[in-house]
Write a structure and sequence with these properties.
Length: 346
Amino acid sequence: MEFSVTNGQGIIRLVFDGFASCLSIRRPVAVNWPDCRGSVGEYYAVSELSKEEQISMADQLNRALMDSTEEEIMTGIQDFLQLFENGTYQVYLGNMPFDNTDFHTYRSLPADKVQSNSGFFSGWFYPIKDFDHILTLESSSIDEARVVYYMDLIRKGACPKAVVFCHLYYSDPEMSTSFILDGHHKIEAYIRLKMDIPAIFIHKENEGYETVRDLMHDARLLLNDNEFEHLFQNDDENIPEIKFTDDEMLTAELDRILRSSERIDTGIINILIRHHKSGSPEDKTWLDKRFEALRTNININLFNDNKNLLTFSRQYVEKYRSYGWFSKTIKHHYELDSWIRETILI
């Protein structure tokens, strides 16, 4: 069934820029993006919501999610959708198959393994199943008594339902990430009983993608430094679109990467090239400061041959009669200055 939300409160929203997805419930609570290099399928991070921040369903919806007619369920969902941003939503009933569905949530590291700016990612999954869903509560939040309660109800014939939300992008439907809005205890109960999980699926229809700037700002609130750098560097087709001269936060993040990363990918290179080609005094001043940050990169050291900076340069390939990116290792500052002249200031 199709619903049109025209006066939505915008409390629940999902941003997708064609590469990564970020779900917000008053504030960002979950983000998901692909690995791109083959060792992992997808990365994700989940933030715990406090009891005060959780969206409480209307009593009508809660009753509908248990055992009601489809008409009663849709009536409850119609009220619930007022928490969402404006747009067109498709809502339907279905099942999440037990055999080929995975649910992913954050697994807390032991206290003795948590390090500031550690290389650990919050979560990842591979291989990718037919149906992968990101939970929006940490596993530590699951109440055992509540799970047992739902298991008893299901054994007695009840059919409590979860609520699944995703954007439906017609241009790239396989990139649409699904998030569990409600029903974590119900899902756990069905999994323990090895049963398919009944659910209400809410799909927001979208013809295009949101801006990468919105996604980066939301995701930064959830991700540690290493996670954010991975997202920033790999969202290379989108980040050059950001107007960095108007964004102090993302410029500061870019400087951090330029100073500390072992790798400068093509997305960042294209950012620098774009600001050079602009020709405006503002962009030139901005670009000079980024070069200053890059020249302090900790992996470029005249006296330490064990460190180096991996980046890329463009070369013409006669066979294909076009330019391509080729990896380039930089160890010393004079190599960096040469690379800047030949790759950025062209």
